[in-house]
Amino acid sequence: MPEQHQGFFAMLSFVVLGAVDPEGQVWATLRAGRPGFMAAVDARHLRLGLARDPADPEDAGMEDGDALGLLGIDPVTRRRNRLNGTLRRSGADAFTVAVVQSFGNCPQYIQQRAALPLRDPRSAASAPPVVSERLDGRARAIISGADTFYVATYADIAGGERQVDVSHRGGRPGFVRIDADGRLTVPDFAGNRFFNTLGNMLVNPKAGLTFVEDGTGDLLQMTGRAEVLPDSPEVADFAGAERLWRFEPQKLVFRPAAFPLALSLVANGWSPSTLRTGVWEQGRGEGPLEAMPSP
Strand 219-229 to strand 14-20: parallel, antiparallel, or no bridges (unpaired)? Predict the structure, then answer.
């Protein structure tokens, strides 16, 4: 990790993690702590003061030696850095990531938000998770209203090494379409040209998506299969899209108030790159900026 990355992770109040459970299913999750809960031991090791959470489906993939993807975002400045490596654990209250890669990303499609505490981040949510195999009305409402979600993917490479990646996706509310068969269709906008997410999907279709309700901290976590659609004619129907990808949810976990922060959209917080994109109902039209919802 460069020194700038080390300092950046230390100032954050939450992190996005991606991990693979023993069945080979990949999950994304959000975890929070007081600034300083992440700290660099040195340039190759990042310590996270996060206790195990058995209610989180990702927890089963966070044993000593497991591969881990990590995304840090400052919702005020839109700065983000990604990291992947190997989890090292000697207890249930914290773990360390032995860093393999650490790299920055551009701030595109990140809406500007204020992070406000809903409860002590060290306390667990009281409501039990709800597990299902298909989208219900609540899940559909969360997805349809979302301008942000997180996606985890992974690839097994030569020598038995596994690399997990977790990434941010943003757009206007409604940019994720729920199809009649329950699959999700997602536009892929111009970005960093790293293609970590899509590259992983091309060699391994397993993916995990997570949506968070801004005001309540409700988390909707899904694992399933993704398919990249590079030549879909529907690309022409969505402003800003370069290609599409489709996700088939196979297992869903709804966790009420699991995330202890409220991420509130600030005034004029829409990313300029988001405002240049459309939504499915608008087709190619971008729509007037005043039509965007206000915080």
Answer: unpaired
Which pair of tokens denotes residue 59? Answer: 């927890």
- Token readout for 250 is 């196979």
- In this predicted structure, what is the pLDDT of residue 21? 98
Q: Please state, in angstroms and rounded to a whole number, the distance separating the CA atoms of residues 269 and 150.
A: 19
| Total Cβ atoms within 10 A of residue 252 | 21
- Longest Cα pair distance anywhere in the chain, in angstroms? 54
Condensed to tens digits (0 to 9), the pLDDT of residues 119-134 reads: 999 998 989 999 999 9
Closest CA to 14 of 49, 41, 65: 49
**Number of domains forming the structure of the chain:** 1
Q: What CATH number should be reported for the domain holding residue 179?
A: 2.30.110.10
Structural domain boundaries, residue 78: 3-291
3-state SS assignment for residue 283: coil
CA distances from 64 to 61, 87, 153 (A): 9, 6, 19
Task: Identify which of 35, 77, 29 has the alpha carbon closest to the alpha carbon of residue 266.
Answer: 77
**What stretches of 24-149 show up as alpha helix (H) in DSSP?**
137-145
Write out pLDDT tens, residues 174-216: 999 999 999 999 999 986 666 789 999 999 999 999 999 998 9
Provide the 3-class DSSP secondary structure of residue 278.
Answer: coil
d(CA 87, CA 47) in angstroms, rounded, equals 10
The whole-angstrom separation of Cα 282 and Cα 133 is: 30
